[in-house]
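Researcher: Please translate sequence to structure tokens.
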Amino acid sequence: MAAEKPLPQPLRLDAVELRDRIAGGALKAIEVAEACMTAIEAQEAEIGAWAHIDRAHVLDAARALDEYRSRGRPLGPLHGVPVAVADVIDTARMPTENGTGIDAGRRPGADAFVVRRLKGAGALIVGKTATTELAYRAPGKTRNPRNPAHTPGGSSSGSAAAVAAGMVPLSIGTQTLGSVIRSASFCGVVGFKPTFGAIPRSGVLAKAPSLDTVGVFAGSIAGAAMLGDCLYGYDAADPATSPMPAPRLAETVAAGAPVTPALAFVRQPAWDAADADLREGFAELVDALGDVCDEVELPGHFAEATKLAELVQSAEMAKSYRPYERRGRDRLSPTMRQGLDEGGRILAHDYLAARDWPGLLNASLEAVFDRYDAIVTPAAPGAAPADLASIGSAAFTSLWSFCGTPTVSLPLLVASDGMPVGVQLVGRRGDDGRLLRTAQWLIDFLKEAE
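Model: Translation complete:
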């Protein structure tokens, strides 16, 4: 398996320790950049995580960061830390092709909001990671680093795979229904999807604007929190955002849980789709948690959420991607064309009625979060399928995307075939720091219980 190949020494460090060593002078950005290039060159032919990478540009950028530090200038919170960016996120003068040949050769004139934030924090942008076609369901070239015969998920397939393979310590991608959480689960890394509207999406491919969310991948909760802190904010160009205080995610995680969290195990309406390994794994997890975790059943109307989330995605995607149809419908995959046709047949009153549902669902969730710190539930029906023609199911993620709640996938379980299985934690909207703090508590608790 590709992930078992030895990594250059700097890439064996967690993102936070890597940042601290660069800031303290124990490592140079150029050393880390060269390590990334070595790891990528050793594995990329097998994994296919990248849509664009320019070795010379990356090394030049790393030298510039070292030169900046040598002058005693103040360092940003990600100074010298390599970060990969999904190919649906605009990068100035660097290809952003959105996973489709229709956009081949496209080079935006400006960075997306999140890329500006990364550069302002001193991050080293390593390159663009491969995605599915237009962030939908037709798989791209990426394979799962844990076993290349298995899907890495999607749409943020390359971003998850690049972190899982140790090519980079951090990456960003997007989620509409399940792309960050599912890919993280399949590849065995931490995936964090924040509250809807917490991270501005200006310069990000608009697929379904009432659902689209920027998320992050990392090897640890601390790394995900560090990256998230640099991306949250307000942007008048994104109406989903609003002025808010800095989230202080990393500080909240580092402080630790003040009391033992209370967790709610929720099977979700999709539980019947869970495979035997997943059921057994969650039975063991809930048993290990003991009195800390109660099983909670969601009200019956939650059974409609997945279907309604799909309806909203389809209708908005049909509108958003109409320019692609006009420019080259025949160059879109059958999967993409079918999705657009289905979206085009949705009636306005059905779409508008579906848009009312998140308010109802979140009102019901308030009672759960008044008593529990987080919901514990699967991230996917099981481990990554041995099927490169599919990105897997969003059955266990679409409900939370529809509600706009923050979610995180933790690589805590292992299937009988050795592939990772993610445990998903869900928090109250706007309570992202508390969710990540609870996730870190869960990781620590299970380690102590071993």
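Researcher: Any highlights?
Model: The chain has 16 helices and eleven strands.
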